[in-house]
Amino acid sequence: MGFFDFGTIFFLIAAVVIFFQLRNVLGRRTGSERPPFDPYSAARTDKDATQKPENVVSLPRKRLPGEPAPADAYTAIDAFAKPDTDLNKGLRAIKDNDPSFDPKGFVDGAKMAYEMIVMAYADGDRKTLKNLLSREVFDGFVAAIGEREAKSEKIQSSFVGIDKADIVSAEMKGGEAHVTLRIISELISATRDKAGTVIDGDPETVAEVKDVWTFARDTRSRDPNWKLVATEEED
Q1: Is residue 203 part of a domain?
Q2: What sections of the protein cross the membrane (predicted)?
């Protein structure tokens, strides 16, 4: 056996066995293996390159002067207001300046705003009113609320619902879009004095209220919210 004792032979045999096991498991290099994946330099496939990231939202853009409108740009407006009428032309002008504008969606939002404003005024909620009214209208509402509070008067109000809400006019004033609605609502409202005596309205009767309200939005602003800029009550 010379220099090899039993222990040396044992370790040699073990090394050979381990080598062949690794060779079978890992395989051999042939020169055609894929290189290691590098997440920073790996090229994207054509499909991946054309896909938009999931967290990116394409927003409608304002058309450039002279740029023709898409064929379906006014479909919703023509369904809402008869073509070639002043109302239709006004709504189209707003659509040209605010591609996201939809008359039906606007009316739905205006109805919600109407209820919020009516109830906020009755409750003296200045914070809510400030977010929904223009500066001029807000100042007028706050002055009326202050006068009521100075007399210790309170409005007891219950909103029943809106029977009808129609856009009666629409136009662009410079960069501002203005839309006027005629709103018919039902409301239970009564004003009580300091002693609790009813001095206006009726806490038991549902009254029909007719209002003409105008909402406006600066289409040049990133703020998507409309604000009440004018109010008028019909008899």
Answers
A1: yes
A2: 6-26
